[in-house]
Amino acid sequence: MRMESGTGKLKPLLSIAVPTWNRAESLEKALNFLLPQTAAFNKSIEIIISDNASNDHTPAVIATVQELYPNLKILTNRNEQNLGFHGNLMKCREVSTGKYFWVLSDDDYVREGLMGMIMQVLSHADGPGVVYLKTLDREVFQTYRLDRDQLLLQEGHRIGLISAVIFLNYKEPDNFLNETYKKSAFIGLLFLLNAFIENRKVEVIEGPCLKAANEKPKGYNFFDIFINHMQHVIDYMKVLKIPSAVIMRFRSLYLRKFISLYYLLYKGEKRL
């Protein structure tokens, strides 16, 4: 692995990881939304872009943004072979140095004003363990506090959308997670649960947070990912001794409000 960096020596407040593979156009658009907003916080943010052996023009996109934003701390990596999403994310996680960690998908676009809200929340003396970005069709942001169990019960499966959560970069259990839940599609959600070991407070930022490219998921077995891999999350909740009533409610909401809808969609498209 080769990592190259821009300027900046102080430990950042926030590490933003952007794992990518063969989506140069989407990546370019995502970075064009993100980077102008991070320029005002160049001493507090590091950006990690990890290319999972793309065979399109992704390297050229990354080189261009490095030239355009020389004052940002941009770490770049290109894997010699495709390591899968799990492996590529672990590369980002290993080199991140920020107090908080945010995995931004290369097809999720940061809406105007969001970075300012995020940095305001993270900079607070009584900072949260987790920030949840709840995207709503409105023009203004608002924030409010929850605790861990309230988040799990209120938002359920939605916290599994990796770009929607920012959390303390607590790495101590990472080796355990990597060995126990190898190649889990929900490794980001497992990292989020780690953050609650340190701090159970949640700050919700509600408003025009993210705009998605709306590409339908593809390239994997639906039930393997969304049932078997979600079981990794349920199992780890038990390891963390989250109350059984909360776990059961989380699982029930996930099955009823998410799996059933996608089952009908995929069956209708004959993709099961």
What's the short story on this structure?
The chain has helices at residues 24-38, 58-68, 84-95, 114-122, 148-155, 174-180, 187-198, 222-239, 244-268, and strands at residues 14-20, 45-51, 73-78, 100-103, 108-110, 130-135, 142-147, 165-168, 201-207, 210-212. With 272 residues, the chain is α/β, with parallel strands linked by helices.
Following the backbone from N to C, one meets helices and strands in this order, namely EHEHEHEEHEEHEHHEEHH
Shape: globular
What is the rounded distance between the termini?
A: 36 Å
Number of DSSP helical runs: 9
Strand arrangement, largest sheet?
3-2-1-4-8-6-9-7
Number of strands: 10
Mind summarizing the main beta sheet?
8 strands, mixed
- Structural category: alpha/beta
For the structure shown, list the relevant keywords.
single chain, globular, two-stranded antiparallel ribbon, 272 residues, alpha/beta
